Amino acid sequence: MSELHDLTANEQLERLRHGEIAPVELARHYLARIERLDPGLGAFTTVTAERALERAAALDPDRRALALWGLPLADKDLLARAGVRTTYGSRVFADYVPESSDELVLAVDAAGAVSLGKTNAPEFGMPSYTESLVAPPARNPWDPALGAGGSSGGAAVAVSAGMLPVAIGTDGGGSVRIPAAATGLVGLKPSRGRVPSGTGLDRLAGLVVPGPLARTVADAALVLDALAEGPYEFATRAPDAGDGPLLTAAVRGEGRFQLGVLTRSPWDDAYEIALDPSALDALAVAERELDALGHGLEEVPWTATPEYAPAFRTVWQAGASAIPVEGTALDLLEPLTRWLVEAGRGVPVRGLVEALGALARFERGIIRLFSAYDAVLTPALAQTPRPIGWYDGEDPERNFAQQVQYTPFTSFVNVSGLPAITLPVSATAEGLPMGVQIVGRPGREDVLLAIGAQLERRLRWERRHPAAW
Q: Which amino acids are annotated catalytic?
């Protein structure tokens, strides 16, 4: 007989709404799994068991129609929740307890979810791996000697190991898709301007948006539908994503599409990017299955983009310049973060303006290039999941290069504001998950979910679990 965590998030929500399980029962189930599994995996930095059970008990049964009513989730430890320790992945904020909650946290609460605590994140979310000096590393449930990626690494570990049914991360350069791909999950980055509580429009270069990590395509759609609700307070927003809820597109999984295939990246002009055979094998699996489903496939005619790498580096550093750490507290920052902060604070205004202009030109060029296709297929990651401690802890330049070489296909999607989904289509000989990324047209998350659902039906990745399960 299946246990509660064996059910999909949609199935758990359905049982909650029909009164077959109670929010308190479900919260207790996951809290027990966290207590048992998390010490060896590092998914959580803080567990708020008492608050969670109080919240679950207080949910109004008359509001069961809320999008996430009674469903256990957690807050990424880059998001403030009033009264709960929030470290931002940094020793500087090791004991910080905010007095107010961030907008995304409030939006998830309004949808009826129950927060069980804080999921592990790297220092201020700057790296694409989750290893910090304020908490144990987030370990990959498929092999705890390996990392889970980042910056939503703790969230990915929690879902992959069955400590949460789904999770919400934030993605500024791949921070949802990278850990999802590393841990065998579906990771969905929405279009810029899709989520009212995280449009990206108020972030430098529009890079950062929230998105779901889930075991199934339908579960990812469920969460994104919930995030997309609420008042929208910007003049610019993403185009409508087809007809009706995204969950409908994910459940139906209908349509035949013309897909581009891309194995080049905008980082190729600045770094040596080599695709591991396992990454190419995953791409080949996806191409084979998509062809069998009747989709058209053709190579994208990529051209060099030498402006991209230096412009993105400048903007990433400039974004770090606003990290609220000054004076002697800078000594507590990790080498990579300190390098980013100090380099960013030294960027001249003209240099930032030129970098933003270069990225805006890149965005228009990518949208123009991709307009010939309904979606574009790439590897999710260039390499297999990296070992804990693999990234250089002393040389930030080398560290940055290592991150680019591991994740060359994700950041350009943030720059372009496009939606993208990563899907766990294959496994290495050692059993490690490997995935692909599919990038959509502006606002067309429905197409990504439909394609993902078709692949899921053929490959049944939701049946695969790590030993920790």
A: 76, 151, 175
